[in-house]
Amino acid sequence: MNNRIPRDSDNDYTADMAKARRDYLFEKTGTSTEHIGQYSFDPQCTAGNIENFIGVAQVPIGLAGPLFVNGEHAQGEFFVPMATSEGTLVASYNRGMRLLRAAGGAKVTVVDDAMQRAPVFIFNDAREARDFGVWIEENVEAIKSVAESTTKSGKLRNIEQYAAGRMRYLRFNFTTGDAAGQNMVGKATYVACEWIKKQYAGIDRYMLSGAMDTDKKHSQLNTLNTRGKRVIAEAVLPSELIQEIMGVSAMTLYKARAITQVGNFMAGSVNTGAHSANGITATFIATGQDVANVAESSAAVTYADIDDQGNYYLSITIPSLIVATYGGGTALPTQQECLKLLGCAGEGKVRKLAEIIGATVLAGELSLMSAVLAGDWVSSHDSLGRNR
């Protein structure tokens, strides 16, 4: 019995090979893959994105908007494609976007940009590790030159250092242009580490990642120091407008935030908001981002205030928004269409995309909290989210 998935060593990205694997699946499991096997692009374009290609996962895409963004890169109205199977989600974000638009839009700023690889060097004892750290500080420019020789768009910004036992953890911080950059910085850091190993005597061994880059998982270090784009979305909303569109007052929202901050603290959450992961995941799937990065990107810090006129100020800080408009899954046909809808396809557009996602997340925060307080949360799921 053949237990090996069919492959073609010469050209594995063809419709025939995809069908061969689906036929193999039917033979093994008796399950039809009729819908998986329907797609509109040449399988060749998936090379570098997938192995053992058999078809597509067809996630429904809904449209929310228009979203009004006052960014430094995203300015004006945008229709946001959101890929999800959760009923009410698009409707909720749409409602939040309506409120933001009526209030003059969301002001969004990218305040920091960094992608990391964090190798660890091991020595005989802590003193040797400390001395190595001094050498690193003295040779940063040479290390920078070696690291950047591997990439056109990656730039080594700085190297953080952390000491523990006989180990020295180095956190290389790069800017990566329009790419998310994890693979880019991994290669650049590897070449730099190999150079360091040749230049510095006494290194027992090193690992390319000592886990302080926290790939595909969030950390307090990222909340403080940024991974990907650090995005802040904010808006000032008149109380009467909130009441008209959301059915609650600004003061009610403000007091609710104080209560939920305590709940989030007691739970040990990395997010003091309501559900940033929903909007981020839906836009990530639609635009070809690495969806596993939602583990980091969904962390958020919310802040609310009320001024003397009763206007409600709300901001959400996303410290680790990992997005790209070039490379990876962004080049796939469906994802390219979604990026083009936003005017974010290709080079020079990554901060624009980050600002649009930041504003989208803010809209979702406003809508969900209002729904919870107005009693619409359960009823909306009953009316829009019951696909049984």
TrEMBL record:
Q: Which Gene3D superfamilies match?
A: 3-hydroxy-3-methylglutaryl-coenzyme A Reductase, Chain A, domain 2, Hydroxymethylglutaryl-CoA reductase, class I/II, NAD/NADP-binding domain
| UniProtKB keywords | NADP, Oxidoreductase
State the EC number(s): 1.1.1.34
- Please name the GO terms that the record assigns under molecular function: hydroxymethylglutaryl-CoA reductase (NADPH) activity
Mind telling me which Pfam families this protein's record contains? Answer: HMG-CoA_red
A biological process from GO: coenzyme A metabolic process
Enzyme class, spelled out: oxidoreductase
Which top-rank group of organisms is this from? Bacteria
Q: Which InterPro entries match?
A: HMG_CoA_Rdtase (IPR002202), HMG_CoA_Rdtase_cat_sf (IPR023074), HMG_CoA_Rdtase_eu_arc (IPR004554), HMG_CoA_Rdtase_NAD(P)-bd_sf (IPR009023), HMG_CoA_Rdtase_sub-bd_dom_sf (IPR009029)
Q: Which family does it belong to?
A: Belongs to the HMG-CoA reductase family.
Q: What is the name listed in the Swiss-Prot or TrEMBL entry for this protein?
A: hydroxymethylglutaryl-CoA reductase (NADPH)
